[in-house]
Amino acid sequence: MVKTLIVPLPPAQRIEVMHSAEVAMARRVARQLAEAVGIDPRSCDEVALVASELASNLVKHAGGGSLLLVPLSIPPRTGLQIEAIDNGAGIPNIHLAMTDGYSTSGSLGYGLGTVNRLMDEFEIIPRNEHGIHIVCRKWVGGHSPSIRPCPFEVGIATRPKLGFDQNGDDFVVKHWLGHTLVGVIDGLGHGELAHLASVAARNYVESHYDLPLDALFRGAGIACRGTRGCVMALAQFDWEREKITFGSIGNIDARVIGNSTPVNLIVRRGIVGLNTPEAHISEHAWRSEYMLVLYSDGVSTRWNWQDFRQLIGKTATQIARDMLHALAKPTDDATILIVKKTPR
Ligand SMILES: [Mn+2]
C-alpha cells in the first residue's frame, strides 16, 4: 500500500497592495509560503521577486489591487499560486497594453516577461471593464520532465468598432499540462449588448477549459441564453500528440498558414445562445511550421498570407497587430488571434 504523507499546507494569504510598503510585505510573505510548501531556496528567491514585480505593478499601473498567495496541493504536486487582481482604477494603461497586443511569451510589458520566465505556469486573464487578473504558479521540483514547455506562442490584437468603448469581440487563451485552448468570440452586433454576450461565452469557456470542445459549445450556448448570442471558434492544441481539435459556430474565420495540403477547418452556421447547433468538431495533425489565424468578421477576409510575408519572423503579437491594422473594418469590432511556433 502506498502511504501518502500529508503535510498541512499554510493558509492562503491575501495582501491588499496600495503602497510600496505592501510590496515589501508581498515579497516577504511569498518567500515564507514558498519555503513552507517546500520550494527550493533559489526558486524561493524567484517567487519573492515575482511577488514584488506583481505587487509593484499594482501600485504603479493599476492604482492598487490585491495579491493572493495560495499554497497548492494537487497530489503528487505541491506548489504556490500567486494571483494579482487589480482594482480597475488604472485600466487605461493596462487596457491599452492588452488591446494593443498581448503575448504569452516574450515582449510583455510591466515586468510580466520576468514573471513568465521565472514561474512554471503563467496566465493573463483580461477583464475588459475591471482590468486584468494574472495567475502564475511555481511547483516544487519545477515542471515534471515529461511535460514539455509550450512550443507555441499566442498573440492577439483586438479593438472595438470605431467610436465605441465596449468591445463586442472577446478571446480565450488557456494553457494547461500539454495543452493550449484558444478561441475568438464575437457577440452579435456591437456595443454593450454584444460585449455582454461574448463575455458570457468567454467566462463559461475559461472556467471549463479542459472539457471536450463539443461540451464547451453546449455549455457556452446555455451560458449565453438571455443574451444576444455570439459566434465562436475554439482550437485546442495537444503538443505531445501534435494535434489540433477545432470547432466553430458562426462566422469566425480560421486559416492555417504554412501547410502544403490544406487543413480544412469546418465552420457550422448558427449562433451560440440562440439555436446553438452541434459544432462540427474535427481533429488535424499540427506541424510546428504551421500558423493558425483566427479572426472575427470585423476583419476583412480579402487577404493572402503572401501580402504579409515580411512578418514571418515577428512575434505572434506583432503579426496580429500588423494584420489588424491593415485589415480591420471601422464598422465592426475586430479581433485577430495568431498561434505560431515561438521564434528562437
Ligand atoms: Mn462582428
UniProtKB/TrEMBL annotation:
| CDD domains noted in UniProt | HATPase_RsbT-like (cd16934)
Q: Where is the PPM-type phosphatase domain?
A: 159-341
- Write out the transmembrane intervals: none
Pfam families linked to this entry:
HATPase_c_2, SpoIIE
Q: Which InterPro entries match?
A: HATPase_C_sf, HATPase_dom, PPM-type-like_dom_sf, PPM-type_phosphatase-like_dom, Ptase_RsbX
Q: Would you tell me the protein name for this molecule?
A: PPM-type phosphatase domain-containing protein
